[in-house]
Specification:
single chain, alpha/beta, globular
Length: about 180
């Protein structure tokens, strides 16, 4: 059994989710058992369509009516926070009980930054997870504590992006 490590993909560039999905596909291709959860995204991201159909990968559904946090009312934020905190507990329990090899928490850093997931709970899980469990997180602005908990840290920087020219996200490319 190999020791599981922690990956963080962060920055303002495109490709953080793509890195995590690539890791999931590679792990599943090697026969590893993979669990995927997306924070702060609808359950219709194109990558989920293929991941749901690959052997060795389980996708747990997020909050389907997810809006951008800045668009939410305080009541919607409280409801989302409760959902994500409970979902994280379920994810951790499932990852441990069913002996997964890789857990990908897509937009996990955003969930922490927007107060939808307790950083303390996340750090506690990373510290006390099963030894073989690999964990990947992505998003913006990881705290010093999360950076210190990681074994791999990759910064993905934007140099140029079509959004800056007013080009909306495109199916199969950005969503």
């Amino acid at each position: 059994m190999q020791k599981g490590l922690v990956h963080i993909y962060h920055g303002d560039g495109k490709g953080k989710t793509t890195c995590g999905v690539g890791l999931c596909i590679r792990a599943a291709g090697a026969g590893m058992k993979v669990l995927v959860f997306q924070f702060l995204k609808k359950n219709d991201s194109s990558e989920l369509n293929i991941l749901r159909n690959l052997p060795n990968i389980t996708v747990m559904d997020g909050l389907d009516s997810a809006k951008f946090v800045f668009q939410m009312t305080e009541q919607e934020k409280a409801k989302a926070r409760d959902f994500y905190e409970n979902a994280f507990e379920d994810i951790c329990r499932k990852a441990v009980k069913e002996e997964y090899d890789l857990l990908f928490l897509d937009e996990g850093l955003h969930a922490v930054n927007y107060g939808m997931l307790s950083e303390e709970r996340l750090l506690d899980f990373l510290k006390n997870r099963p030894e073989k469990l690999e964990v990947a997180l992505n998003g913006y602005h990881p705290s010093e504590a999360l950076l210190n908990a990681a074994d791999y840290v990759s910064r993905i920087s934007k140099e140029k992006h079509p959004f800056d020219q007013g080009i909306p996200e495109r199916l199969g490319i950005e969503k």
